[in-house]
């Protein structure tokens, strides 16, 4: 089908227009692309062909210059792109600048500055607490309802969807006795975490917190994120300074960054708060910063869970306000993950830890039982959100295959 | 004194030659500099003036190209620099390319990729355990002797020595009761951590661990590092995912990176190991990777502690092997901190947490008592190591002043 003729209701129609970076077999030069249906528009070439002033932002090998440009420019560029793909007069010029999605190679679309991972799903945190501290009266730690718990992860191992993930090796305990020495070998509890990643565009100054209301001035858009986790490595290492090698081997993100402007119709209020919040986190007077994203997790093509992002207790705006309240600066390309998304139902859980209750209750897949991931397993996360007039806004899939170390 | 006439025994003589990045009042262009005594040689200009092939690495605004070049080139460049500053024939050409240290502005010398902080001093870990878990029979967590505990910090807030540090605000508990809500405000327990930072030059591939013996192929050099810590913010936030806002507001490093080649005479074996180590961490057959660095911490010019780096249980080589054993890749500019350096004696402790036993036992300074840092306090860390023929190798100071938020 020709690029301009996107079927009605296509989740990647002109109402969406996510950004990525691609190359072709004919040219290994990386270029900013905008997805329309099952095609990619070479956005820089289009800007040059149409004499657009945005060529300086779009004719680049990474999204970083566009990310750095700030909210007003983001909206202006999006309006321009919308016109390019919808106004018939541009068709003749732009048609040769579209590439079939199946014919391009997609790359990590931006240079990741710092990567932070949060822990914002109350259902996930309660499940994790019940699994790891079965004797505790309260599965949530005392701070959970007062602040969005987060920690820094490894920016250098964030990879684009489609990248193979090498099973990590590391130390693990084979029984919990404190005197027993750990063993070394490939992780035997390799897990997924279904998350949404938020991409920071406009930077902020060190020493100056970013208030809740400035979230949209700094965050450009979002992506799906798989926070691969080696539970056995993590369990042994994480006290007292948090997860390290259990997470740092790989984090996968979609090849497409969906701009916040495409998700206006998906904004929802977060769940009612059970505890009063300190003023810098109190969003009762703010516009809703939750998102009604319907996520799906498949292993080897078989759907195992459908986590609802609207259930997240802490919003991306609260996470940004918290992240910077101590004066930490933001840089273009900062990425922060929502934390594992788990709904209230068993079939809405965002990790195998929860779906199999730490391996006690295996999943039945068409190709056999699963507690944790096996070599060769392909995990694919997808999502959509309600868009204008009821049409869906598709997020780019994030997919990865486990290979032996 | 003219640049070439460095007094005998100067810790920044031609046996040292640390690298930095500077600009001058006459030119805001950042340039790689090499320190000789109380002067800075414009290394790129020198390379160009002498027709050196290293001009492509040195005539740059950051050390990253040199860092990326790898061990063989690092040693070659160092030999060339040593010749430039010692062979009399070069004096006439190079003399105008020296700038008095007092007349230049020093910048963060490299772009920090990922920042990891370790916890490698047994004395520090025992002190922290005793302070935070006074009722526990064993102050070390069960994993401490089996792996070098570490976590990721915020790369974007690493600042060069001399940068003011804004006192962070955040959540803290005013009493430990679990039902009591936190309060918000400026940290009242703002602390230091005296550390050594290791700067990665040569990258490594994702999925490929770096063995112990390859440490010197990847690590270019070291710096002093002050891991500023807000103890009250940290105490409330850090369970279960580790330190976050209690650390992420600022981390200071020296303006000078001391190449490993300058520290050959300072290499020492680490303390005897009390527990057998897994093969990837077992360094009994390796060259010693500890360093005999004599550190000093001063508050407002008054020395409060002299931590000995040779007491660190885990070496930088073990930390690198651990950091990558799960397949995590290295990037040029990765920085990892040793963890707080504390000796066995009270006057060798590397944090105010330990020096004042969490505020119970204030330090007596000439300008009054200190539990934690006050606004206006200037903290300066310095260090030296034994060099060739007994002359000292100086490390660049790391200094910072606390300013109100």
Task: Please provide a written account of the structure.
Two copies of one chain form a homodimer. Chain A is of the alpha+beta class. The mean pLDDT of chain A is 96. Chain A has two domains: 19-107, SH3 type barrels (Roll), CATH 2.30.30.230; 115-403, Fumarylacetoacetate hydrolase, domain 2 (Alpha-Beta Complex). In chain A, the strands form seven sheets. In chain A, strands 6, 7, 8, 13, 14, 16, 17 and 22 form an eight-stranded mixed beta sheet that branches. In chain A, strands 4-3-2-1-5 form a five-stranded antiparallel beta sheet. Chain A has ten helices and 26 strands. Chain A is globular. At the A-B interface, strand 7, strand 10 and helix 8 of A face strand 7, strand 10 and helix 8 of B.
Q: What would you give as the CATH superfamily of the largest domain in chain A?
A: Fumarylacetoacetase-like, C-terminal domain
N- to C-terminal distance of chain A: 41 Å
Per the principal axes of the C-alpha atoms, what is the gross shape of chain A?
globular
Count of helical regions of chain A: 10
Helical residue percent band of chain A? 10-25%
Class from helix and strand fractions of chain A: alpha+beta
Rg of chain A (CA only): 21 Å
Low-confidence blocks of residues of chain A: none
Relevant terms:
globular, 26 strands, alpha+beta, Fumarylacetoacetate hydrolase, domain 2, 18% helix, 29% strand, 2 domains, five-stranded antiparallel beta sheet, SH3 type barrels, eight-stranded mixed beta sheet, homodimer
């Amino acid at each position: 089908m020709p690029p301009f003729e996107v079927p009605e209701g296509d989740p990647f129609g002109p109402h969406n227009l996510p950004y990525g970076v691609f190359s072709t077999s004919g040219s290994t030069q990386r270029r900013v692309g905008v997805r329309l249906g099952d095609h990619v528009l070479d956005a820089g070439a289009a800007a040059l062909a149409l004499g657009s002033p945005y060529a300086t932002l779009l004719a680049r090998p990474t999204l970083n210059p566009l990310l750095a440009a700030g909210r007003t420019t983001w909206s202006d560029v999006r309006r321009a792109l919308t016109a390019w793909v919808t106004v018939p007069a541009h068709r003749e010029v732009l048609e040769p600048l579209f590439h079939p999605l199946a014919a391009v190679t997609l790359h990590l679309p931006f240079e990741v500055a710092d990567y932070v991972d949060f822990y914002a799903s109350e259902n996930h945190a309660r499940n994790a607490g019940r699994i790891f501290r079965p004797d505790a009266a309260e599965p949530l730690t005392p701070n959970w309802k007062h602040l969005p718990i987060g920690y820094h992860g490894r920016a250098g191992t964030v990879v684009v969807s489609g990248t193979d993930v090498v099973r990590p090796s590391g130390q693990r305990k084979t029984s919990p006795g404190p005197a027993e020495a750990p063993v070394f070998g490939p992780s035997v509890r390799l897990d997924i975490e279904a998350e949404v990643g938020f991409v920071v565009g406009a930077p902020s100054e060190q020493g100056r917190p970013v208030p809740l209301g400035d979230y949209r001035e700094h965050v450009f858009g979002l992506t799906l994120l798989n926070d691969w986790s080696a539970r056995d490595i993590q369990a042994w290492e994480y006290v007292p300074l948090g997860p390290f090698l259990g997470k740092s081997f790989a984090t996968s993100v979609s090849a497409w960054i969906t701009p916040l402007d495409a998700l206006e119709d998906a904004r929802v209020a977060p769940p009612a708060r059970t505890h009063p919040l300190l003023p810098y986190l109190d969003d009762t007077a703010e516009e809703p910063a939750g998102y009604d994203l319907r996520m799906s997790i498949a292993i080897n093509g078989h759907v195992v869970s459908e986590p609802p992002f609207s259930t997240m207790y802490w919003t991306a705006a609260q996470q940004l306000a918290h992240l910077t309240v101590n004066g930490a600066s933001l840089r273009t390309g900062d990425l922060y993950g929502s934390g594992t998304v788990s709904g209230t139902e068993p079939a809405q859980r965002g990790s195998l830890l929860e779906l199999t209750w730490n391996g006690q209750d295996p999943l039945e897949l068409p190709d056999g039982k699963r507690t944790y991931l096996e070599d060769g397993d392909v995990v694919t996360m997808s999502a959509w959100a309600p868009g204008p007039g009821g049409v869906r806004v598709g997020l780019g899939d994030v997919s990865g295959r486990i290979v032996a170390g």
